[in-house]
Design brief:
Elements: H1 7-26, H2 30-33, H3 36-52, H4 67-70
Helix pairs in contact: 1-3
């Protein structure tokens, strides 16, 4: 049976997942990152984190850093 999450649990899970994805992308070689798809994916994830960062509890759930500075796009 699928466990449903409340809004806060969902946002915390998204923060964790998106941050891990961006860290993986950041570790790629420049030639691997040259793909338009990968670049678009990175941009979309950064934008998602920036939107989530507007949540009132974002900083206490791990979004207490400058996203653009950490993951420049």
């Amino acid at each position: 049976m699928k466990k449903y999450l409340n809004a806060e649990e969902t946002l915390v899970a998204m923060i964790d997942y998106i941050t891990v994805c961006l860290e993986e992308i950041a570790s790629l070689d420049e030639k691997d990152l040259a793909s338009q798809f990968q670049r678009g994916q990175e941009t979309a994830l950064v934008e998602c984190l920036e939107l989530i960062q507007r949540w009132e509890k974002a900083s206490e759930n791990g979004l207490d850093f400058n996203i653009e500075e950490t993951f420049p796009v």
